[in-house]
Amino acid sequence: MSKVARQLKFLNKISSTTTDAQVILSPGKYQRLSLTFQTKNHNGHMGARKFWKDYLPTIQFYNPQLRIDVTRIKNESKTVSVPCTLQAIGTDGKVVEEIDMSNKHAPEILQSLLQKLDHERVPESQIISVGTQSA
What we know:
- The structure is a single chain.
- The protein is built from four helices and six strands.
- It is an alpha+beta fold.
- The chain has one domain: Glutaredoxin.
- The strands form two sheets. The protein has a four-stranded mixed beta sheet, with helices on one face. It has a two-stranded antiparallel ribbon with strand order 1-6.
- Helix 2 crosses helix 4 (106-116).
- It is globular and about 50 Å long.
- The relative contact order is 0.25.
- GO terms for molecular function: structural constituent of ribosome.
- Its main location: mitochondrion.
- Residues 40-120 form the Ribosomal protein/NADH dehydrogenase domain.
- This is Ribosomal protein/NADH dehydrogenase domain-containing protein.
């Protein structure tokens, strides 16, 4: 696969094929999202990492005004606990909602986020798909 084809595939993953995350969060309510999890998958942090990789780019794409902070903590110990949280910060700078992402799969984290935050689906007419380039 050529470099251009890989880039087009990646752009389409962000903009058009990750359908569950195609939402617009209420801009009058949320200033930013803040994720905290460890760099390693142990202690139940794999779902948080997959959420960050698979769903967060699409949320950011359709909410360009939303600031997203990601704090990844290096923790080699399997016995030391590191927070695994997703926080929605309101326009007043205070935590509006918090989701414990520990031991949850990425789709579960997304569903929890959508249940707790005011949002609307991106209308079908506004879904962006990048055309493919012929060889």
